[in-house]
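Run log // design_07
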């Protein structure tokens, strides 16, 4: 079976790597990563990491907020990056992961949802769910009108590590992760 390393992080002196079968990759995200990256290069992202709500420029937050900085995350297709989904009666949405840091310390990932006109229609800050210093999406995939999300939360460098498996839905114009 072909394997792909999705994430690796240094935890003290020990390297930790998550390996997932390549067959988990989501067709919607595989087929259109470049197009979605271009499409989302100048979208609005929510206020986060000691920065206000703002429009990205070429996929990155404005330099005037340094040392805080952020961007949409476009990793391996099976990790999620960005993908087109149909979460309900509001048409097709694009889900993207917004990652940022303040002074080179990463903050928990934010899931952003955009409509067909690239307007930010909702977001979920994973840190508000886990109440931890860090949270990263390890995998997500579209299943019908939902998205199955596997993510981890942890403190510092790999302390109190928890794996979460939840379902992302949209109802009443709001994103829900349960």
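design_07 sequence
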């Amino acid at each position: 079976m072909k394997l792909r390393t999705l994430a690796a992080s240094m935890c003290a002196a020990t390297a930790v790597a998550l390996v997932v079968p390549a067959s988990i990759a989501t067709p919607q995200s595989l087929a259109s990563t470049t197009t979605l990256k271009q499409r989302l290069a100048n979208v609005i992202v929510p206020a986060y990491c000691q920065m206000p709500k703002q429009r990205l420029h070429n996929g990155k937050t404005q330099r005037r907020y340094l040392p805080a900085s952020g961007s949409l995350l476009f990793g391996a297709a099976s990790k999620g990056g960005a993908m087109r989904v149909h979460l309900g009666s509001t048409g097709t949405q694009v889900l993207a992961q917004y990652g940022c840091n303040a002074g080179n310390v990463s903050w928990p990932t934010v899931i952003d949802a955009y409509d067909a006109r690239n307007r930010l229609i909702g977001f979920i800050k994973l840190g508000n769910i886990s109440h931890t210093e860090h949270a990263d999406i390890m995998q997500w995939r579209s299943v019908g009108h939902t998205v199955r999300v596997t993510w981890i939360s942890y403190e510092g460098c790999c302390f109190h590590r928890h794996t979460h498996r939840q379902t992302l839905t949209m109802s009443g114009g709001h994103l829900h992760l349960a």
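The first strand starts at residue 3 and ends at 11.
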